[in-house]
């Protein structure tokens, strides 16, 4: 602690900033924690005792208090297991709300999006994309897909379509072994076409997603049901007025599928339309 405090002697604080000391209790014997290591021998400082934590580690704040003697705030935290912490229900919800390929290091952007901070999430994804290695095609495809989600939320359909197509291009050219992820791209491209009024292209993209999901999950899967309902909605809207009760039935069916998939915000949206 004294070594950490010594750094404050060489720090110049701005008037609107407060010094903070974070004390972390990390037990390597706890099951399910992210890896961490003592990297003191690589430290620039001869007597330094530095520990490197894996990106994505989860910490629980136990106490925050102000130290009058040292004129700083002290935060006491513990390193948590991935299986036992208060945020686990939130992370589980995120995994249900988004496809499997949208979690991991990009999950922070998903949290920002869930909070409605679309600009912050978009900036995070852009920075993440710029920092990726040239041949990390998996992360590039994921990031473009998530940028498509954000711009879709913001109503910028042209840019959203551009991102989804870029993600699809990378998947098709560089990630041939992960054919299942193509369905998510085709599905979201269909959503964009539908919102832009391109009904024929929307049905074509939904059918591409449908074919892949049936191949991987069978005909009884909820994602397959969602695809059929979306296609049915496009066709019925073509021939029936918006207020027709058959349209309401389709909205209700789509809402039910999203509810079972754990997409509660989308489910509520479609139930309200119904």
From TrEMBL:
Repeat listed as a keyword: yes
Q: Name one Pfam family in it.
A: TPR_12
Q: Which residues form a coiled coil?
A: none
What are the record keywords, sorted?
Repeat, TPR repeat
InterPro entries for the chain: TPR-like_helical_dom_sf, TPR_rpt
- Repeat (TPR) residue spans along the chain: 141-174
Database matches in PROSITE patterns: TPR (PS50005), TPR_REGION (PS50293)
Q: What is this protein called?
A: Uncharacterized protein
Q: Which Gene3D superfamilies match?
A: Tetratricopeptide repeat domain (1.25.40.10)
